[in-house]
């Protein structure tokens, strides 16, 4: 591999600097570095971030290759500036054995666009009854450390307690999809003023908050750490804030869409806005932004959930839940957090790279942009303004809620261990 | 008037009064020996029913036939829908056969809205009830019935329901009739009170343009019309209320309670009634109960809606009278 000189980039949004990559490693960071023998990438006005890390991606392979594959999903990830994604376990078959997680891991390695770190199911078949072979998945080539039944909640308190305890043996973490199942039977959207008018089954905030409250208390009791997936309500923020103040080892993520969109959009009955947990209210959105800024919420995770067109081109109740997010995440975060003044680019690096890598144990990712570190990097043009056009997505699916919406910023380059996966906005 | 009728909330006061007035004209047709107008001759209307609802379908069918439309009835049972065909494909297939209007009943809230706004078809869409969302022609026929009874058949023309006190009792949470009625009655100037056990009221009801009460007895003396909604017995299995008996004791309308209503006040029911549950036979069969009238009025209202959405700007009845001469 040859040398690359990234010239004049604002590293983590700071003063312009040059960054020299040799092979798979950053060898020098400073002003006026010599360009000899290096391919030069002019980066004036652009922001250089550590490669983004997504702790919550649905790659759909194996089983639903009509919506996404490891190849198309990792190409979408590279387009969005990601160098590592954690692939959720709700595939067909479920990633509840060493065999499935190894397959997904190897596909990621083989395609080379983005590291794929499989997440293992907590329970067999995501059924919430019996622990999956968590240790075997950890010891497999995939080296699983994050376990989640995402899509379903580990609602049985005893199973949850055991899972929290068991994974401590190998430094694992359980990522909970917090959704009390009985309170959300037939749920179609956030329960509140809008659901009352639209006549759609309500998904009450308390169904999320009660599980989070229980799980932070369980984590405290058994001295484990717990991660909360896609936190979506102001009340959940309060519970996590309280838990952290008590010293409970809890981390939490928020999706880009919960930072921007509200349940008012459901008035269109357009299922592109149907997602789980559902879009909440303006008050929740503001609380989530504030919590991400003050660190109560640790990270942004996309919950990239591809679905084929026919699963969204129908009536609301029949539609699948979920949105694609990898290719728009950074733009949404720029709009909601950076351009609003809540977070600087160093904060974005922290919430979208450093911390997710640390929570998931993704070694080699989420490292500082400095000499000797792996060259996993993302170059962003924050001045760019464009309208989201899903036909240009690398993802196999187009179910974005942002179609036609103007969003700021654009990822122009992504490097995975020194290899460019995205150049001038085009996949390499 | 708009191109579609999806929600009672989409109607302005003037739209609604126009529909009620047009329905009065249509009702006069029903009094004639030949109850038919040529207004929609050559137009095709499909009744697209994904949910069983014999009474609503028959009412629309009668209205369509009285306006001389060609009528196609489509029910999901035994059709390609039961084999997995999507709403979009079904609608496009029907439209390809040359349909001018689609009257749709669907179990999913918002399905008619999707049909009207997704660019799937060009035909006018009339919502005949969607999930727990809306049933605008029901609200219109209810308002029509109230105006006739509380204002007067001739005196009511051009009038709304300003100041009338309407109480709606029963399962508000799972009901589309209550939602549509609250929207339309509010638009028409009526004062609406919803009465139900708290379990059968949606979270968010506090923002609706109406009062909410858990106590039927205190509301009855202040009502010009009391509308009883059907309560499905299965609801008690999901702990919405303990038993059928307890429900009727607290929220059912019997003779004693009816006696507490003002003398002029009417009892309404959209049907089907569960006698012994929300309403006793004594009340259902009394002169004050307008359930049967509502059915009759439903045909007039649906004629008016079809005429206004499809029939163009010419007056409906005057025009046809000229033709008859």
UniProtKB/TrEMBL annotation, chain A:
<dbReference type="InterPro" id="IPR050138">
    <property type="entry name" value="DHOase/Allantoinase_Hydrolase"/>
</dbReference>
<feature type="binding site">
    <location>
        <position position="150"/>
    </location>
    <ligand>
        <name>Zn(2+) 1</name>
    </ligand>
</feature>
<dbReference type="InterPro" id="IPR024403">
    <property type="entry name" value="DHOase_cat"/>
</dbReference>
<feature type="binding site">
    <location>
        <position position="177"/>
    </location>
    <ligand>
        <name>Zn(2+) 2</name>
    </ligand>
</feature>
<dbReference type="GO" id="GO:0004151">
    <property type="term" value="F:dihydroorotase activity"/>
</dbReference>
<dbReference type="InterPro" id="IPR004722">
    <property type="entry name" value="DHOase"/>
</dbReference>
<keyword id="KW-0378">Hydrolase</keyword>
<dbReference type="GO" id="GO:0004038">
    <property type="term" value="F:allantoinase activity"/>
</dbReference>
<feature type="binding site">
    <location>
        <position position="56"/>
    </location>
    <ligand>
        <name>Zn(2+) 1</name>
    </ligand>
</feature>
<comment type="function">
    <text>Catalyzes the reversible cyclization of carbamoyl aspartate to dihydroorotate.</text>
</comment>
<dbReference type="InterPro" id="IPR002195">
    <property type="entry name" value="Dihydroorotase_CS"/>
</dbReference>
<dbReference type="GO" id="GO:0005737">
    <property type="term" value="C:cytoplasm"/>
</dbReference>
<feature type="binding site">
    <location>
        <position position="276"/>
    </location>
    <ligand>
        <name>substrate</name>
    </ligand>
</feature>
<feature type="domain" description="Dihydroorotase catalytic">
    <location>
        <begin position="45"/>
        <end position="233"/>
    </location>
</feature>
<feature type="binding site">
    <location>
        <position position="303"/>
    </location>
    <ligand>
        <name>Zn(2+) 1</name>
    </ligand>
</feature>
<keyword id="KW-0479">Metal-binding</keyword>
<feature type="active site">
    <location>
        <position position="303"/>
    </location>
</feature>
<dbReference type="InterPro" id="IPR032466">
    <property type="entry name" value="Metal_Hydrolase"/>
</dbReference>
<feature type="binding site">
    <location>
        <position position="150"/>
    </location>
    <ligand>
        <name>Zn(2+) 2</name>
    </ligand>
</feature>
<feature type="binding site">
    <location>
        <position position="230"/>
    </location>
    <ligand>
        <name>Zn(2+) 2</name>
    </ligand>
</feature>
<protein>
    <recommendedName>
        <fullName>Dihydroorotase</fullName>
        <ecNumber>3.5.2.3</ecNumber>
    </recommendedName>
</protein>
<comment type="pathway">
    <text>Pyrimidine metabolism; UMP biosynthesis via de novo pathway; (S)-dihydroorotate from bicarbonate: step 3/3.</text>
</comment>
Automatic annotation (TrEMBL), chain B:
<dbReference type="GO" id="GO:0004070">
    <property type="term" value="F:aspartate carbamoyltransferase activity"/>
</dbReference>
<dbReference type="Pfam" id="PF02729">
    <property type="entry name" value="OTCace_N"/>
</dbReference>
<feature type="binding site">
    <location>
        <position position="56"/>
    </location>
    <ligand>
        <name>carbamoyl phosphate</name>
    </ligand>
</feature>
<keyword id="KW-0808">Transferase</keyword>
<feature type="binding site">
    <location>
        <position position="105"/>
    </location>
    <ligand>
        <name>carbamoyl phosphate</name>
    </ligand>
</feature>
<feature type="binding site">
    <location>
        <position position="138"/>
    </location>
    <ligand>
        <name>carbamoyl phosphate</name>
    </ligand>
</feature>
<feature type="binding site">
    <location>
        <position position="272"/>
    </location>
    <ligand>
        <name>carbamoyl phosphate</name>
    </ligand>
</feature>
<dbReference type="InterPro" id="IPR002082">
    <property type="entry name" value="Asp_carbamoyltransf"/>
</dbReference>
<dbReference type="GO" id="GO:0006207">
    <property type="term" value="P:'de novo' pyrimidine nucleobase biosynthetic process"/>
</dbReference>
<feature type="binding site">
    <location>
        <position position="83"/>
    </location>
    <ligand>
        <name>L-aspartate</name>
    </ligand>
</feature>
<feature type="binding site">
    <location>
        <position position="135"/>
    </location>
    <ligand>
        <name>carbamoyl phosphate</name>
    </ligand>
</feature>
<comment type="function">
    <text>Catalyzes the condensation of carbamoyl phosphate and aspartate to form carbamoyl aspartate and inorganic phosphate, the committed step in the de novo pyrimidine nucleotide biosynthesis pathway.</text>
</comment>
<dbReference type="GO" id="GO:0005829">
    <property type="term" value="C:cytosol"/>
</dbReference>
<feature type="binding site">
    <location>
        <position position="271"/>
    </location>
    <ligand>
        <name>carbamoyl phosphate</name>
    </ligand>
</feature>
<feature type="domain" description="Aspartate/ornithine carbamoyltransferase carbamoyl-P binding">
    <location>
        <begin position="3"/>
        <end position="147"/>
    </location>
</feature>
<comment type="pathway">
    <text>Pyrimidine metabolism; UMP biosynthesis via de novo pathway; (S)-dihydroorotate from bicarbonate: step 2/3.</text>
</comment>
<protein>
    <recommendedName>
        <fullName>Aspartate carbamoyltransferase</fullName>
        <ecNumber>2.1.3.2</ecNumber>
    </recommendedName>
</protein>
<dbReference type="GO" id="GO:0016597">
    <property type="term" value="F:amino acid binding"/>
</dbReference>
<dbReference type="GO" id="GO:0044205">
    <property type="term" value="P:'de novo' UMP biosynthetic process"/>
</dbReference>
<feature type="binding site">
    <location>
        <position position="176"/>
    </location>
    <ligand>
        <name>L-aspartate</name>
    </ligand>
</feature>
<comment type="similarity">
    <text>Belongs to the aspartate/ornithine carbamoyltransferase superfamily. ATCase family.</text>
</comment>
<feature type="domain" description="Aspartate/ornithine carbamoyltransferase Asp/Orn-binding">
    <location>
        <begin position="163"/>
        <end position="309"/>
    </location>
</feature>
